[in-house]
Design goal:
- This protein has about 260 residues and is an alpha+beta fold.
- The protein has 2 domains: about 5-55 and about 105-170, Alpha-Beta Plaits (2-Layer Sandwich), CATH 3.30.70.360; about 180-260.
- It is about 35% helix and about 15% strand.
- The protein contains 9 helices and 6 strands.
- A 4-stranded antiparallel sheet has the order 3-5-1-6. A two-stranded antiparallel ribbon has the order 2-4.
- α7 (about 180-195) crosses α9.
- The longest helix has 19 residues, at about 240-260.
- The chain is elongated and about 75 Å long.
- The two termini are about 30 Å apart.
């Protein structure tokens, strides 16, 4: 699983919202500056421009890349589920590699100024954004947070004040799937669904997994029953009933097998 750092940034220009007809063209606009900032955080090849961001990224071996790209993962199904008019990503990597093995920086939300009905021609005093970095094995969340903040402050002009907050940090984690407990999980899924399960990576983040592993020094087994097109985090997030009941059966077999030890 990828790690996750979550940030919030607040830019302040004028001490209050200003009339754009009276002051426009002579004072800084924090919203404009904020959008310019995020435009500079990726290059034309969709690589993050933060110096040192990729320095500790664990590189896949040729065998790992081959195994990853031979999984029964279909790009057309992914594109159908997403529903975007086009697709992009870091140059030199396949879509599945980008999703599961590469770090990212994403703008998650941005706001400021007038957002009500009708028109109100203000130059906003403040502009805000929330953004995140997904991290991969060997990247240190604290180090990455420091690099990101340093780069953000370097890119900003002196015409605004910046409040930079790290709201949360979580380590990346890769399962030691050669451990026998993972073979038990694989067998349980086959019992539950009638098909052999394969090991994959996951682009999402569950920071508590690394906390458990660091504390107890035992493998953490993640067994998922949801599908990529079930709209995780959306208002209509759901799970298919056949997966729900198949998951119950698989978990029962998994616990029964563990009890035999």
């Amino acid at each position: 699983m990828r790690g996750l750092n979550y940030y919030q940034i607040e830019l302040t220009g004028p001490e209050r919202d200003l009339h754009s007809g009276v002051y426009g063209g002579a004072v800084p606009n924090p919203l404009t500056i904020l959008t310019e900032l995020f435009a500079k955080l990726h290059d034309k090849n969709f690589r993050v421009t933060v110096p040192g961001f990729y320095d500790q990224v664990a590189k896949l071996s040729n065998a790992e890349r081959k195994a990853l790209n031979s999984l029964p993962w279909k790009k057309k199904d992914f594109e159908k589920a997403v529903g975007a008019p086009g697709y992009c990503g870091e140059k030199g990597f396949t879509t599945v590699e980008r999703l599961w093995t590469r770090p990212t920086l994403e703008l998650n939300g941005i706001w400021g100024g007038y957002q009500g009905e009708g028109a109100k021609t203000v130059i906003p005093s403040k502009a805000f954004a929330k953004f995140s970095t997904r991290l991969v094995p060997n990247q240190d969340p604290k180090k990455i947070a420091q690099l990101v903040e340093k780069h953000v402050r370097k890119l900003l002009p002196k015409t605004v004040h910046c409040k930079f907050e790290v709201l949360s940090m979580g380590k990346p984690w890769a399962a030691p799937y050669h451990n026998p407990i993972f073979q038990k999980a694989q067998a349980a899924l086959e019992e539950g669904f009638g098909k052999k399960a394969v090991f994959i990576r996951e682009g999402g983040s569950i920071p508590f997994v690394t906390q458990m592993y660091d504390t107890f020094k035992v493998p953490c087994v993640l067994i998922g029953f949801g599908l990529p097109d079930e709209n995780a985090h959306a208002p209509d997030e759901h799970i298919a009933l056949e997966n729900y009941f198949g998951g119950i059966k698989a978990i029962a077999h998994f616990y029964a097998d563990l009890a035999k030890r």
